[in-house]
Amino acid sequence: MPISTNTNLSAMTAARILNVTGDQLDRTQKKVSTGFNIADAFDNGALYAVSQNIRSKLSGLSAVNGQLGNALGSVQVANTAVNSISNKVQDMRKTLVQLADANVTGDTRAQLENQYAEQMVSLVNYAQAADYNGVNMVSNGTNFSVIRDAIGNQLALTAVATSVVAAFSAMSVAVNGGFSSAASLLANNLSFATAEANIGTALNRIGVLNTRLNDQIKFNSGVEDATKAGLSYMIDADLTVESATLTSLQIKQQLSSQSLSIANQRPQIILSLFG
Question: Is residue 201 within a helix (H) or strand (E), and if so which, with residue range?
């Protein structure tokens, strides 16, 4: 290769290699700092567009589970209320059994009759207080739906108020005036036993709703995890590899810089020819 003061081919080659190495080093540093192979559209427009679409769907799934969690809160509050009602109904049966005894008279009967009435008030209070974020599945018979997936499909939730109200109606019978009214309420299968069956129906319905909501949340979380894994394979950087690449490029950059320095000094040899 001829030595010339007009064109230093060695320096040009060294400069080109240094520039290429610098570009590679910039890309690797970007991967290390962001953790992504595809951090923006400049890295790969097509893949970045796909990744953004996947991120949007992930955001939707997260929002869906938030709404399902809100509905689950309503079901859990309803469960607390109906379970309290069920426990109170057990106490009411005990009271009725005492009132159905002909030997219970006078002040004792009056106290038991008042106790039954107060127990009935407690049932109503439990139902009315079962409110969660404006939704009461125990005292309000309105059914509602909640979104269950990121494409807008709905999960229908049936309120338990119909069963609870039917139970209250069966039990809200006056038991004063002697043992016969209490005995009749206990003996008549269309009365207290039916009320207990209705409360059992409400408890079962709440259990079904709780299972459906939890299963849907778990399913959505599984889809979300799988989607995140797929997105990771697409755009995440292997930091172990990138770390090694970064070290290699830093050394290469230093060597290229030294080569350029040597190449730039080469034309000075001409001066010795005229010494």
Answer: helix 192-235
Q: How far apart are the first and last CA of the chain?
A: 22
Query: Contact, 143 vs 156, CB < 8 A?
Result: yes
Mean model confidence pLDDT for the chain: 84
Tokens of 215: 């299963």
Sign of CA dihedral 264, 270, 272, 275: negative
Nearest alpha-carbon partner for 202 in 80, 67, 94: 80
Quick one: tokens of 106? 């006078």
34: left (phi over 0), alpha (psi -120 to 50) or beta: alpha
Give the model's pLDDT for residue 161: 86
208-265 pLDDT per residue, tens: 999 999 999 999 999 999 999 998 888 888 788 878 887 887 887 787 777 767 767 7
Q: Which helix (H) or strand (E) holds 145?
A: strand 144-147
The pTM of the full predicted model, rounded to 2 decimals, is 0.75
Distance (Å, rounded) from C-alpha 91 to C-alpha 263? 100
Specify whether the CB–CB gap between 127 and 138 falls below 8 A: yes
Integer Cα distance of 186 and 105 in angstroms: 18
